[in-house]
Amino acid sequence: MALIDVVNLSKAFGPKVVLSNVNLQVQEGESLVVLGGSGTGKTVLLRNIMGLLTPDSGHVAVEGKIIAQLSREELFNVRQSIGMCFQMAALFDSMTVFENVAFGLRRHMKATEAEIGARVEECLTMVGMKGTDKLKPAELSGGMKRRVGFARAIALKPKILLFDEPTTGLDPVMTDVIGRVILDLKEELGVTTITITHDLKSAFEIADRIALLFRGECIACEKPSEFKVNPHPVIQQFLRGDADGPFLQDPPPPKRKIQEAHS
Amino acid sequence: MVLTVFDKVGAAVLKGTDTFGDFAVLAGRTFAAIFKRPFDIKNLLNQFQSVGVNSIPVVVLTSLAVSMVFAVQLAFGFKQFQAEGLASQVEGLAIMRELAPVITGLMLSGRIGSAMAAELGTMQVTEQIDALECLATDPVHYLFVPRLLASMLVVPLLTVVSVYVGFWGGYLILVGVEGQSAYVYGNEFYKLLAFRDLRIAIYKAFVFGMIIALVGCWKGYRTQGGAEGVGNAPTSSVVTSSLWILISDFFLTKLLLV
């Protein structure tokens, strides 16, 4: 049985269909990377897995439990086994780094302050943020915030980690740092991960399988080596990073045509 | 034409019912969550600090100003009938029954209700409330409950402070300016009052505290649309809670004076 099972998942916001009959299975210990253009429903997929959104049809099951059918208490129990890393970190800005990472521990574990302190330090060390525990989120850079977000997500020792565009808006060096941190976490903790990213370099490093969402549908879900040579024109265009092709519904005109029109 | 009007009226009624239903459900969830574990004492004390202690200067200054203005009006009005002695009695009655709870409620809806809406609204648009959910923490339990408890306890206490300050505001005008005897003022201020009046003022303040916290949290929790939404949430919270304070004041007065 797959650890995460997405079955015929569909979700629309008003007339806009964001996900349409998406099927994905993620096995225990596996690392799935979800690629796709902006607005193709990648974040909506993660939010359905976390139970932050309810599917219009289909379902998401985590460890065999259908998320949309759980009571609030049951859902909170499932969520304790999932760590979610938000796109912009979503750190609690009224709290220090220490309090952010300790939040879940204080709420859900009967541990002493010394034990909590030790676990927070361990988590911050794992993401390369040791010594920042007294800082407030406002004092951190974008990359540091993401890493503190990772530390908060792993504090409760989850079985599953979800990363929502962890490298968006970061410089190439910091993007590589974040990619390495995710890789280290995956190897050290042995967790199952789903990562949404636009960064192909880290995607191929992290992934056991890569899925591509296109206009709300999952058009491929395969090993990185197979994904690279998949002849589907959308996949090849995405890998090339080219504006011309079927990927965009309304692509901009080629630059040379604009120049010709003006001359 | 007629159908369009019916459409519009129907849509407005549906929207109003939907909005009220949403508020009622969230309010119900908040009351149900009061007794749920874990009890976050630190969070509660922080709310007492921001809702209560930090609001004392605002309540003192507005109560002083309103009671002084009211005393000036009363002194002027009763002078027309050579009944200056009644001014202190009416001052006491008005402050205890109406001015203290309503002014405190309105000021706190502006100070703490708007702050709650802005804080929760910011948390909503920056995904901090989603982060709470993902950390298996009910936002209603973690965010609403301490604010509601602090508000329900603090607004009555600040109303008592407001009555006390109102006494001295009237004293400054009626004794200090109008030349009434301090001893007479002290006695006359309480002459028309009974313990029931203090009880009514505290009941009213308790309800106003509930309205301020629930509306503030609800408006913040339902914030949408980035910076514009966060900007609108406090305004909407103050307008809604002020309106409900004044409307409920009428019904509470009718009910409690029977």
Automatic annotation (TrEMBL), chain A:
Region (Disordered): 242-263
PANTHER family referenced in this protein's UniProt entry, alphabetically: INTERMEMBRANE PHOSPHOLIPID TRANSPORT SYSTEM ATP-BINDING PROTEIN MLAF, PROTEIN TRIGALACTOSYLDIACYLGLYCEROL 3, CHLOROPLASTIC
Family annotation (InterPro entries): AAA+_ATPase, ABC_transporter-like_ATP-bd, ABC_transporter-like_CS, P-loop_NTPase
Molecular function as annotated in GO: ATP binding
Keywords: ATP-binding, Nucleotide-binding, Transport
Protein name (Swiss-Prot/TrEMBL): ABC transporter ATP-binding protein
Alphabetical list of SUPFAM superfamilies matching this protein: P-loop containing nucleoside triphosphate hydrolases
Superkingdom of source: Bacteria
Residue ranges of every copy of the ABC transporter domain listed in the record: 4-240
Automatic annotation (TrEMBL), chain B:
TM segment ranges: 56-78, 148-174, 201-221
Coiled coil stretches, renumbered: none
Cellular localization per UniProt: Membrane
Major subcellular location class: membrane
UniProt keyword list: Membrane, Transmembrane, Transmembrane helix, Transport
Pfam families: MlaE
Keyword Methyltransferase: no
Bilayer topology term: Multi-pass membrane protein
Domain of life: Bacteria
PANTHER family documented for this protein: ABC TRANSPORTER PERMEASE PROTEIN-RELATED, PROTEIN TRIGALACTOSYLDIACYLGLYCEROL 1, CHLOROPLASTIC
Family, as annotated: Belongs to the MlaE permease family.
Protein name per the record: ABC transporter permease
Protein source organism: Geothrix limicola
